[in-house]
C-alpha cells in the first residue's frame, strides 16, 4: 500500500494512494443551469418526505398502542423505544442508499451544513438542499396528519419537545453530541482515504450512518425525543403547531448545527490534518 499523508517530513508530503476531491466553490452559479442539480434537490425533498412519513407514523402508532386510556391497554405493546430508534435508523439507511448517488443522501440540514463547512458542497447547493429538506419534512408530516388526524392531534404529532425534568442546557447538549456522532459518522463513512483502502466502504456507507442514527435515538429519545435533524423537528412543529412544540424549538436548530460544525472541524482539521496541510502549502508558496 502506498504511503499516506499523515504529516510532513522535511517540508514535503509523501505520496498517497487516494485523491481528495477539490473543494467545492463557495458560489457556483453554473450549478443552476444543470438538470443534475435540480434532480438532486428533488431527491432531497422526496427522501425527507418519506423519512418523516414513516418515522412519525411509527411514533404515533407506538403512542396509540400504549395509551393507558384505551381499551386493551398493554404497557409492553407497540414497538417500544427500540422500535422507534430502528425506524429512524433504518429509514436513513434505506434513503441514503437510494439517494447517495444522486444528491449525496443528506436528508438533514445539519449534515448539509457540516459538509458545506468542509467545502464538500457549494453555498447555493447547501441552501436549496436545506429548503427542500424542510419542505419535504412538512409534506411528510402533513401526509401523516391527513391519514390519521385524530391520532395525530391526540399524540402530539410526533413533535420534538424537551422532556419534563430536563433543563434547556441538557437538551441542547444532547442535540449537540447526538448530531456530532451522526455527522462524524457521515464524514468517516464517505472519506476517500477509506474508500481507497476498502473497496466495500462506498457500498456500506449508508449502514454506519443508519446505525449512528439508531444509537443516538436510543440515548436521547427520553430527553428531547431526538432531533439531530432540524428538518425533522421543523416539519413536525409546523404541522402540529402547538405552543409547546415551539417553546424550545431553537434547541433543535442550534444544537444540531453546533454539533455538525464541531464534527466538520474535528474530521477535517484533526483527523485529516487539514491545518498541517494548509501550513505546508503556505510554507511551500512562501
UniProtKB/TrEMBL annotation:
Q: Which GO terms describe its cellular component?
A: membrane
Membrane topology, from the record: Multi-pass membrane protein
| Compartments, record wording | Membrane
Identify the SUPFAM superfamilies for this entry. Answer: Aquaporin-like (SSF81338)
TM stretches of this protein: 41-61, 81-102, 123-144, 170-189, 201-223, 250-271
Q: What keywords does the record list, in alphabetical order?
A: Membrane, Transmembrane, Transmembrane helix, Transport
Q: Which GO terms describe its molecular function?
A: channel activity
Pfam families with a match to the protein in the record: MIP
Give yes or no: UniProt keyword Membrane.
yes
Does this UniProt record's set of keywords contain Transmembrane? yes
Q: Which CDD domains match?
A: MIP (cd00333)
Instruction: Note the superkingdom of the native organism.
Output: Eukaryota
* Listed InterPro entries: Aquaporin-like, Aquaporin_transptr, MIP, MIP_CS
- Family membership: Belongs to the MIP/aquaporin (TC 1.A.8) family. PIP (TC 1.A.8.11) subfamily.
Q: What protein name applies here?
A: Major intrinsic protein
